[in-house]
Design goal:
By secondary structure, the protein is mostly helical. The chain has one domain. The protein has 3 helices and no strands. The longest helix has 19 residues. The chain is flat and about 95 Å long. The relative contact order is 0.04. Keywords: Signal. This is DUF4148 domain-containing protein.
Length: about 100
């Protein structure tokens, strides 16, 4: 029984060490991208400059609409308070229902 246990333990150690022999570098260099390009540094800099000039601050797929209000702040607040008093708009925790 002692020989069988020793044989199985040696076989297990050999199997685990065989898995370690197939490992790659610890920095995951096998996943690194490799680029082979023949563009010059000046071409890349010129392209980057044109992209920066034509870049829009507007998010992709959306339209930013600006609106200039002519209403008076006090009039808007008074209209909102009146709408709450008359029950046209809810207020407080009941509005979450």
């Amino acid at each position: 029984m002692n020989k069988t246990a020793r044989f199985l333990s040696i076989a297990a150690v050999a199997a685990f060490s065989a898995f370690g022999a197939h490992a790659d570098e610890a920095d995951a260099s096998q996943f690194a991208l490799k680029f082979d390009t023949n563009r010059t540094r000046a071409e890349v800099a010129a392209e980057a400059a044109t992209v920066a000039q034509t870049r829009s601050l507007e998010p992709a797929g959306s339209r930013v609409v600006t609106y200039k209000s002519t209403a008076d702040r006090a009039a808007v607040r008074a209209a909102a308070a009146e709408a709450v008093r008359t029950g046209q708009i809810p207020s407080g925790e009941i509005s979450a229902l």
